Amino acid sequence: MHKVSTISDFFIAFSHECGDPLSNLKLQKLLYYAQAWHLAIFDEPLFGDQIEAWVHGPVVVPEYHRFKGWAWQPIRDNPQLPEIDQRTVEHLNEVMEVYGAKNAYELELLTHQEDPWKNARGGIPIDQSSNTVVSHEDMKKFYRARMNG
């Protein structure tokens, strides 16, 4: 299992190399999809931090606070690509291939249509605050079904 900050650093460094820096909002969605697909494919979490179902989609709270000073602007921190195992690099590259070209708002709308976020929200209004945790089991079940169908 990795530190979530390592996964964030990977996504930020990757985005800088591609010339398309991430906002905190987009980073949060990439962390969510990286975790969800890791659970579905490998049956284990990628990182230990929980993901909460906030108004604007899934959020890893410590990483949100780490980058909240950037507000809606691109994160200008420029970390080096972290040293991580090849399986994880391939997984994160695939997440970027599938989700990286979408903007933050598109990713937010996508998460709002999917069961793990909706289940965690429990039917509360879309604009009501919540810190309910998105279940690993819900993520694994939902994305494994997409993988197999």
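That was protein one. Protein two is written in the same sequence-then-structure order:
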Amino acid sequence: MVLFELSTANALAQSCDDDTIYEVSDDGSIVTMLSGAVFQVTDPVDRVDTALWMTSDDVLICDNKIINKDEDGETASVRRLR
């Protein structure tokens, strides 16, 4: 229980931004946000999931990860391009 609480506290300490998906490339390799931010999905395995993400899905962007709140918290490792 204590370990869970510590890991939760660390996750909450991360800098995360709310955003919404504007567009996802057909192969799931590029995700563009309504804010104008553009991310490259760095893990090919994650691209299987991101290719199925929908425009208007609400996400959290935390460091080099996108967490899709509308897809049961699916995550993708990313690198910000813009």
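The first helix runs from residue 2 to 13. Keep this in mind for the problem set.
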